[in-house]
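Two folds, back to back.
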Amino acid sequence: MSDLVSDPVVVTGANGLVGSRVCAALLERGAPVRAVVRRPGAAPDLAGVEEVVGDFADPEFAARVVVGAAGVVTTVHPMGSDLATQHAVAVVGTPVLARAARDAGVARFVHLSTAAVYDRSPSAGEVDEAAALVDDDADDYAVTKRDTDTGLGAVEGSTTVLLRPPAILGSGDTSVWNTLRPRAMSTDAAERRAVPDATWAWVHVDDLAALAALVAVGAVRSSDDAGRGPVEGACTALNVAAPRATQRDYVGTVCDALGVEPEWTDEPAWRGSIQTDRARAWGWSPKVDLEQALAELHQGLHQGPRR
């Protein structure tokens, strides 16, 4: 099947770290982009991108923005906001767009979830798409992302894919792991405390965006078996991760670049890995290896975290 489409793919959060990369990945595959943002002039300034300003949680706007679309990719979650805001935007708002897409006959709905929905306590072991999810006592981000996934799964008749990446590496002012977390580590010694051999699961944003684009344009065929492709008319979870790395890899690289010392501890920690057999069966494999990703991280921080 060709991954070239003539109808646009809707991308929410098109000005964010992941959303902007998804826009670029779609354009590389010949797919025009309808970029949903909240502020005029915020969408990527690229040929083939149509900016649309509005709130996807508004049913009237959602119905308008998906008309004639080949697919939808949602990347918006207000990380760091209070629980009520995260719930309103993600748990309530995202299914509004999903229902509008289903009613408009959009073929694919791709949602950026997270591996944070899984229980990764010290005893959790290996984590595949059937692994246990977090309980209600987890942090607000994990719980609201879990509940958003549940809400999307309840949108009957929609072919939905929940992409579940762990830490997303990649340069950008809003990048949690390349910019925001290192900024905190530069000033707060507690942020530099970690178990060195504990798992640090990760994926590079470019590999994540490439898979989102492939699924959105239908380059990965639908199937009646999640092990071979998105299940037609149903909701399919998909882990997206690079090979296992450790906290020593990440924290050590950041501290070296910042010229500060990590504090290594010895306590119970998760040492499993995110299993990606399903994604690989769908034809995806990461292109950016750990050495490349950490080199990019180190280079970006060499003169200090971004202000």
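---
second:
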Amino acid sequence: MSRRAAPATVSSASAAPTAAAPAPDASAASILHQPTAVWAVAFACVIAFMGIGLVDPILPAIAADLAATPTETEMLFTSYLLITGIAMFFTSWLSSRIGAKRTLLIGLALIVAFALAAGLSQDVESIIGFRAGWGLGNALFISTALATIVGAAAGGTSSAIILYEAALGLGIAIGPLLGGLLGSISWRGPFFGSATLMAVGFIAIVVLLKTEGPQPVPTRLSAPFRALARPGLGILAGAALFYNIGFFVLLAYTPFALVPLGLGSAVNLGLVFFGWGLSLAVTSVWVAPLLTRRMRRSRVLWLVLPLLALDLAAAGLLIGSATGLVGCVIVGGLLLGVLNTVLTESVMEATDLPRSVASSAYSGVRFLGGAIAPPAATLLADHFSSATPFYAAAAAVLVALLVIVLGHRHLARADGAVEDPLEEAEAIAVGDS
């Protein structure tokens, strides 16, 4: 197997809007020295990712005020993530025809509309439906934003991914905090707050993302599905599906586990998950690059995935301790930050596919994993014990590890090397068939 460095190819299909500027040397470029267009998209990403954790602190309040069961309330996550995952498969097809900027703006507009509608709802079923519409807008925005940042950022793919994951971590950190503060007034507050902030993001994209860049080559509707036939991308997507089960059990189920421990108020939950998201942001930006400079990306996954499984198992063992469970949440954030960044970097480098296609395929699969976790967790808690969802999440993360370990020979390119030319040609043929 050849160990030469993989070329960082970016096809015209993934060309993203960027301010016209000479490309800086990748080794010299700082992650902070980015075109204005990149900062505009990153800012909107922060707001978009706030939507994931925004409802976390108000889940118990919604359940109480609208007479909903925990499982019904968890469907606010499932409808959002399910539609996000399904729609992700088609975002590259749309963005390659109407352009990245229009796709981003349509996504933001949908989020504003459905967040407002959710805030005005009178029953949990309506909120579940409007969260699904929110998920559609989220899919259009997030998948296109990732490809846009990767294509436009200075400093190469790794710097772009770190910036994207920093936006994810910051958004996920601020989301619960804002949700807790606004939720202490009314559970409707976070929805109205999110709609307002997304409107600001919409304006930022309109004003600061001034160019469309080169006209992208339209991709086939089936491109993301065929992309999953590429061994490297398929393995990473499969691992991410199970990994995201662990991610969303920690995010979506833990608020209900904290209620009996006296931490069920919107403000308390907001503070807990602010710490979680802040931990995630810190390791995304500083720890993940430190590790990937010293070992292969696949080896980082081999190291950190079992640590996450142990953390989730510890959460199950410490289910009766508020201090212990909060500690597991914070440690989980630290581990998730590393895993998010390394998995996303690996996906962007695993194939020679356009960035938008790879992003759509991978994101679609991983969000489907997230959609399964929240209601499954509450059902497991109802039928067995409140600790069972954490043990199940730990098992899912170990499955993700097993997928990575068994498929490691197909991850050479993701690790910074290209496969043997014959193997690479066969993989491309399978993906294009």
